[in-house]
Amino acid sequence: MGRVAYGAAGLLALALLTACSAGGPDREDPEGVTTGGAGARGASTSFSPQDKAADVPTDQPVVVAVHGGRLKSVRVDGGGSGPLPGVLSADGSRWRSNATARPGTSYTVTAVSVDAAGKESRETSTFTTVKAKETFDIKTITPNKDDTGLTVGIGMPIMIAFDKPVTDRVSVERNLIVRSSKPVEGAWHWFDDQHVDFRPQEYWPARTKVRVEARLAGVRGGPGMYGKRDVTVDFKIGRAQITKGSTDEHVLIVRRDGKKIRSMPMSAGQGGQWKYYTTSGIHLAMSREPVTVMTSPGIGPGQPGYYQLTVYNTVRISNSGEYVHSAPWSVGSQGHANVSHGCVNISPDNAAWFIKNTLIGDPIIITGSPRKLEPTNGWGHWQENWKQWLKWSSLKGGPTLGL
């Protein structure tokens, strides 16, 4: 499975700037920008991309530099999408864009500078970006209001699915920005060309505000393919709740903010066949379902072992059909023996409490079973240690930005 993650917006190396005003250049700065000489009259302004440049990459920064004065303002207009934002240096000598341009768009750069004598001058330059043959978009981003709610558990990953395969993973990943009110170390992780997920190195701090900025409009996703739009999602982390259960001790313990708040007798998978073991590992609550119809995996009606049950107050913990759920039929075994087909059985009263008190993304950790939860089985993101997680991250992680 091919995979590659987290990062702040990156920009290409600057192209050599050519002075637009009279007077020959006499110096080159560390970024390779050539500006007018000290002997030139007035302020000398330089542009990159150069005037009338064509097929400019969308992620090439626009840079305006002035010698013999300071920039008063810079505006980059094009495509009806509003001015391209940028940052002016502290000394007013340089302006640099900090967003991706749109493909197939003509831009006009207007720079107003002031020389040492206070004389103001205005200069313009134009360029056109490379055309897009096709676009790609975000198909889904999780968490979201409809599927998870916007208050989630401390184990919640950020999951993005694209509508088309992305081959320029680095370019896309650089433009996936995570901000948080409490700083965390985190990384993006490619599960395949259409799915990239983010998780912190450790669980999210409780009560953290998080913002995901997918700045993908105009970003190159592959040969001739560019991002269609930007997407921003805000969510927050709730209290720190972790549930732990042992298939040997037959009990679930719920702790919130470090304090034990509930102990629930449980019955896990009976084993015998591999599919009837509950998986061991760090699961996450994936959904809360008042009613779930469960059917025997791989067995049809009339075959030995077939079942179809209507089950109440279920919390899903994997894609292989595992839930923590109400099981009135096994109350006598709960706390003593494992009799289920792989789910975690608890009493009706405990199940009603658990579904009410669980957030999507809460860790639910099961130990004691020989069957391990696979990282790709549901939201098994925490099954990989940090070194393993970073293996599929081209940018190798870093701290979240402030919010």
Number of strands: 33
Q: Counting H and I runs of at least 4 residues, what is the number of helices?
A: 3
Note the gap between the termini. 34 Å
Assembly state: single chain
Q: What general outline do the C-alpha atoms trace? A: elongated
Q: What's the rounded overall pLDDT mean? A: 89
Question: How helix-rich are the residues, as a percent range?
Answer: under 10%
The radius of gyration computed from the alpha-carbon positions, rounded to a whole number of angstroms, is 28 Å
Beta-strand proportion: 35-45%
Strand order of the largest sheet: 1-4-6-9-8
Strand count, sense and barrel status of the largest sheet are:
5 strands, antiparallel
Structural class: mainly beta
Regions with pLDDT < 50 over 5+ consecutive residues? 1-40
Describe what you observe in this structure:
- With 403 residues, this protein is mainly beta.
- It is built from 3 helices and 33 strands.
- It has helices at residues 169-174, 348-356, 386-390; strands at 18-19, 25-28, 34-36, 44-48, 53-56, 63-67, 69-77, 86-88, 94-97, 106-115, 120-129, 134-136, 138-142, 151-152, 158-162, 176-180, 185-192, 195-200, 209-215, 220-222, 225-227, 230-237, 241-246, 251-256, 259-265, 281-284, 287-295, 308-316, 323-326, 344-346, 363-367, 398-399, 401-402.
- Strands 1-4-6-9-8 form a 5-stranded antiparallel sheet, with no helix packed on it. Strands 13-15-18-17-32 form a 5-stranded antiparallel sheet, with no helix packed on it. It has a 5-stranded mixed sheet with strand order 14-22-19-16-33.
- The two termini are 34 Å apart.
- Mean pLDDT is 89; it is low at 1-40.
